[in-house]
Amino acid sequence: VVGILRLPDFFTRLHALGKSDTLGVALMTTGLALHEGLSLNSLKILMIVVFVALANPTAAHVLGRAALKSGLVPWTREQGDPKC
Which Pfam families match (predicted)? Predict the structure, then answer.
């Protein structure tokens, strides 16, 4: 949450959100699979981890590319940070 509030533009926020979302879902579902034990359900849960690990970065890339093509300009150091 701190990164989303403090980062200056859409692209840096998207980067932070993509990383934390992927890691958070992976840790929660892996913990659930370990709690479930060795079963078919744990295999299904681990397949969800693989899907999320592939889908989240792809979705973040597509969102960033669409924002860039729509004319959103990435933040640079010369622009400064209005919040600091």
Answer: PhaG_MnhG_YufB (PF03334)
Q: Which of 53, 54, 45, 58 is nearest to 14 (CA)?
A: 58
Q: Which residue matches tokens 């729509």?
A: 70
Place of tokens 């890691």: 23
Provide the 8-state DSSP code for 73. P
Weakest mean pLDDT among 18-27, 34-43, 71-80:
71-80
pLDDT at residue 73, as a whole number? 84
pLDDT of the residue at 83: 60
All structural domains of the chain with their residue ranges? 8-74
Residue 77 DSSP symbol = G
Task: Name which of 52, 64, 51 is nearest 16 in CA terms.
Answer: 64
**In the block, residue with structure tokens 């533009």:** 9
The DSSP secondary-structure symbol of 19 reads H
